[in-house]
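Task card 7
Instruction: Convert sequence to structure tokens.
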Amino acid sequence: MKAFTSRNRRGFTLMETVIAIGVLAVLLTGFIIVFTPAADGIRKTISTQQADRLTSALEQELVTLRGSTETTEFKTGFNKAYTFIKESNVATEALLVYQYRGDLEAERRSDGSLEPKPSIDGKLPGEDYLVVPMARRLSDDIFIEDLAAVEGPVYLVKPTQLIYDANQLVLGEPGQIKNPKDGSAAATADAYTEAVIAFAAEFHPMPTNAAGYFTGPEFAKKFTKAKTPVFTRNLAVRR
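Output:
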């Protein structure tokens, strides 16, 4: 009878293990580099329908005088639009567009807008509440109230006047409104000589809807760094 002897199978050497780990690390790094931008793009994607809805809200609210405060402060809707476009280059007067759940069961606020409805448990859309697109300035206290019922992201809007240069419309300077023909600064809406203010509106999604974010220092930092909008629309307001 033959005797059988067992042999221990040789395992991986230390060098082989190190090489395998190195190859795996390279593959993982490549995966992250390729797919992270794609994931960011998906998160930042906005449908044409949603972009149109937000743009329409901005156009409407820029020229709508809400409540006694705005009717006292602004002579016309054009005056309001002029002020909002000109002053929105600072974080404290930032222009924000969003959608919130408006309460159809409660009385309207003094400015005519719906009260926010934070909880919709057992409630029916169109009967108990309505999703309303809105544009307000950060300095408007009602904006902070609406955050409790916001649906989807809040968008920071950075408007900049479009001016003529060599017979072409180009971006002007943020925080400035100039008369298109001679390039002189229009100190007030009444000093603006044309009937239309053309402007480019950049829409930047905010990372959170938390009230503390907008009232704290992080929003001011984000406002300064916001350079790449998710979409831009060329718009105009008329007297």
